[in-house]
Amino acid sequence: MVNLNDMALDLDPVENGIWFTYHEDFEMLIASTKNEPYEKALRKQGGSARKGFRTSSTMSDEATNKAIERACVVHCCKGWRNLFDGETEIVYTPEKALEFLLDPKFRNVFDWFWITANDIGEFTADAQRDRAKNSASD
Questions:
Q1: What's the first-to-final CA gap in the chain, in angstroms?
Q2: What's the pLDDT band for 43 if we cut at 50, 70, 90?
């Protein structure tokens, strides 16, 4: 038997993010791709592509993918901590997030970020309870 509320999205982390760890101590605050500002950006992007279609100047697949990736960074990367370049900490700013995550050298980090933001199961009420239990036992 499954409790209906266990499958519901916890809307606060959908919009504001959850801290996830990547590569030892690097943590990123990631919101779901189901957050309203990201979905609105996608709808706008889709409208631009359709508008171009009517004028027979459609965006290329590559340009569309880049726009979607950029929108994901803008609307789903909410912060990070423990990111250094040598001894210098790289402080999160939205501009730094775009520079870092869209740099081809760090495609592996972007791919992890993308997969995490799209994993809707991470943002359910049930997952939030499990995460709280696990952090309480640490």
A1: 29
A2: confident
Distance CA 101, CA 15 (A): 20
Q: What is the pLDDT of residue 107?
A: 97
**Residue 52, pLDDT above cutoff 60:** no
Mean pLDDT over residues 60-68, rounded?
85
Structure tokens at 30: 């990631």
pLDDT at 55 > cutoff 50: no
Q: Which residues pair with 77 in a beta bridge?
A: 30
Contact indicator for 76, 30 with CB cutoff of 8 Å: yes
CA distance 41 to 47: 10
Domain map of the chain by residue range?
Answer: 18-120
Which tokens is 116 given? 């995490």
Cβ proximity of 125 and 6 under 8 Å = yes
